[in-house]
């Protein structure tokens, strides 16, 4: 499925930057949120929302050798995304952008958080004309920054995820459920019903069960 790039004159085609993280974690979760507009808040999502609100409320500040801006508006016509960065630090002379994304939990086995951060870097490069070689993920549970280098492999993955996520959202497609270990931690588990919908009973099996009774 080929989707044309967003029209610079009308940015209605841009999708939320957060959709990339949702898509790489689970395409169905992404569709439930961004196509069907389903959202269920649990303890994890509430803690994450409060963390981002606290970060955004901090305002701009200066420290020796660095300027810090919070809640920075972003967009990339190349990726077709729009959103906000939690924090953008500006280091050196000329000051280079350094995005920092805050997460409530701990580092994950997949690359969804890295893709979200890389997309922020692409936005900053497109908007400023400056190179953004790396950024950082701050995990609240570990209280630790993980540096992320925006190498060619991560940039290619980010562009591919953006293309697939945008195609799905533009076409208004919701994929069928696939039961994974991550389903147990998903706030949309009850709305998705992966156990019940993953393998719907076939008519032949249903008829056999009726005759067996």
Structural class, from secondary structure content?
alpha/beta
Please report which band the strand proportion falls in: under 5%, 5-15%, 15-25%, 25-35%, 35-45% or over 45%.
15-25%
The tally of strands reads 7
Number of helices: 8
**Outline type:** globular
**End-to-end Cα distance:** 46 Å
Please outline the major beta sheet.
7 strands, mixed
Overall pLDDT: 80
Order of helices and strands: EHHHEEEEHEEHHHH
Uncertain runs are 1-6, 200-207
Helix amount = 25-40%
Q: Say what oligomer this is.
A: single chain
Describe the model.
- The structure is a single chain.
- The chain has helices spanning 18-25, 27-34, 43-56, 112-128, 152-170, 189-192, 194-197, 203-212, and strands at 15-16, 61-63, 66-76, 81-91, 96-103, 134-139, 144-149.
- The chain has 213 residues and is α/β, with parallel strands linked by helices.
- Strands 1, 2, 3, 4, 5, 6 and 7 form a seven-stranded mixed sheet that branches.
- Strand 4 (81-91) and strand 5 form a beta hairpin.
- The protein is globular, with a radius of gyration of 20 Å.
- The protein starts with 14 loop residues before the first strand and ends with a helix.
- Residues 1-6 and 200-207 have low confidence and may be disordered.
